[in-house]
Design a protein that fits this description.
About 50% of the residues lie in helices and about 10% in strands.
Length: about 260
């Protein structure tokens, strides 16, 4: 029995795949959805390869648009032809003019022959119509490839424009990233350690900090402890280990 599959893909985990799935299910509610979070310029994606390996003649694969199948024009066109030759139906909701059913009709429905010398001309017309159908498919994949190249180019130009306008792109070389956890712990070291404003030794300072039930950041949020476990099962480094403690002390003395 033939099956209907819906294939949806996003390039990164930050993108939402729900819109594609909703569009497919609206037209084909019984479609089995296969998804990938993977770049569209290659076809060796986990979900696609799994689907590709189980497709049988008569099965249907529905895409929201052609770029979800491939953004590499040559590879996409070759796989389209391969699946078509195996009897797989391909449906592109945004580009119905390149559905395999349309391509199939272009191959089967030509200008009827007359049995006269005019057939030489009609044969040429039929070949032209088939060639035109193929070109439409290739152009759709070309457009999908162009879109991703244009996106990369716009991103590159945007970064360069921001750089020329004096904006910092990324983290400066050698720059230090300060976290809320680090700020909160340094404040406690400053407050309690005898080398600063307090009267506790290093061991006592670490013991005090690690013995606290909760530590709050400047904005009032609670700092979650990172708990390490020794082989004996004894709790260690609830908030602050020895190495980090002395690193923070050194930075505080250096005014960092």
């Amino acid at each position: 029995m033939s099956k209907i599959y819906g294939y949806a893909r996003v390039s990164t985990m930050k993108q939402s795949i729900e819109r594609q799935i909703r569009n497919i299910k609206e037209k084909y509610p019984d479609a089995v959805i296969i998804t990938d979070e993977y770049t569209g310029t290659r076809l060796d994606r986990p979900g696609w390869m799994k689907l590709y390996s189980q497709l049988q003649s008569g099965d249907t694969v529905v895409f929201d648009q052609v770029s979800r199948m491939s953004r590499d024009a040559e590879e996409g066109f070759q796989v389209y032809q391969e699946l078509f030759s195996k009897g797989i139906n391909l449906i592109f909701l945004k580009e119905p003019h390149i559905n395999t059913e349309t391509y199939k009709k272009a191959m089967e429905t030509g200008v009827p022959m007359t049995g006269t010398n005019v057939d030489f001309i009609l044969e040429g017309v039929n070949k032209y119509l088939l060639s035109l159908a193929k070109e439409q498919i290739r152009l759709a994949f070309d457009q999908a490839e162009k879109e991703v190249k244009d996106l990369h180019q716009r991103t590159k130009e945007g970064i360069e424009t921001a750089r020329l306008n004096g904006k910092q792109i990324g983290q400066l070389k050698g720059a230090k990233l300060t976290t809320k956890k680090e700020i909160a712990l340094k404040q406690l070291i400053l407050k309690h350690n005898k080398d600063f404003q307090g009267n506790l030794s290093d061991v006592e300072t670490m013991a005090l900090i690690n013995g606290m039930n909760e530590i709050k950041n400047e904005d009032g949020t609670i700092l979650s402890p990172h708990i390490g476990e020794a082989k004996s099962g004894k709790q260690l480094n609830k908030y602050l280990n020895r190495g980090t403690f002395y690193k923070y002390k050194r930075e505080l003395k250096e005014g960092r």
